[in-house]
Design brief:
With 208 residues, the protein is mostly helical. It is 67% helix and 3% strand.
Length: 208
């Protein structure tokens, strides 16, 4: 039916809710356990998360999200090699899955395997060109190998997706970590410029 608004100067027709015609299906138990596990991972409760994710995989051994999260837990527990192997397996089975490619690239970069990281980040941005994080990861991995042109091109793409000055601040720290001191200084100055901060406080502000 239609309801007509009571305001004397305006008549607004509003359609009644059709919610009763929408089919509602319960979430599969494997998916429910995965969702709980994923939330626990995000909150840092890795032991409880591992239990929920393990239960999800017992119900659905092919669950991609649960396998990715368990790989992240392996990395957090100090077993990056096992994490990389697990993520490589997921990525091979699900080559169009962005999360699998992104987290594999990040795990490779964390182990200084930058050539592999660049190739995997490149695949990740092909799968999801809108991810500023993936473009940033590609930029930092390129910096680590001295590929400044590629690094800056990827940074430009990251800025187009997110556009905030904090991206330059983040890359400045990352550049320092991989020994690209000149890029770190340039990024710090760019951050200050975009943030509207005085260069007189650069030492205290950019790397605070």
């Amino acid at each position: 039916y239609l309801r007509r608004g009571a305001f004397p100067a305006i008549a607004i027709e509003v359609k009644a809710s059709q919610a009763e015609s929408i089919a509602v299906h319960p979430m599969a138990e494997a998916e429910a356990r995965y969702v709980q596990g994923d939330l626990l991972v995000r909150n840092g409760s890795t032991d409880e998360a591992a239990e929920e994710l393990g239960a999800a995989l017992a119900l659905d051994p092919s669950h991609i999200g649960a396998r990715i999260d368990l790989a992240q837990i392996l990395k957090e527990r100090g077993d990056p090699g096992a994490a990389i192997d697990a993520l490589k397996a997921v990525s091979a089975e699900a080559p169009t899955n962005f999360a699998a490619a992104y987290y594999l690239a990040a795990a490779l970069a964390a182990e200084w395997r930058y050539d592999e990281a660049i190739a995997t980040y490149s695949r990740a941005v092909e799968l999801n060109a809108g991810s500023a994080d993936a473009w940033m990861g590609l930029s930092v991995a390129a910096l680590a190998l001295g590929r400044t042109v590629q690094a800056n091109a990827a940074m430009t793409q990251a800025m187009r997706r997110e556009g905030g000055p904090d991206l330059y601040r983040s890359r400045a720290y990352a550049a320092l970590a991989v020994g690209a001191d000149a890029i770190a200084a340039a990024d710090a100055r760019r951050y200050l410029e975009l943030a509207g901060l005085s260069t007189e406080t650069a030492v205290y502000t950019a790397f605070a």
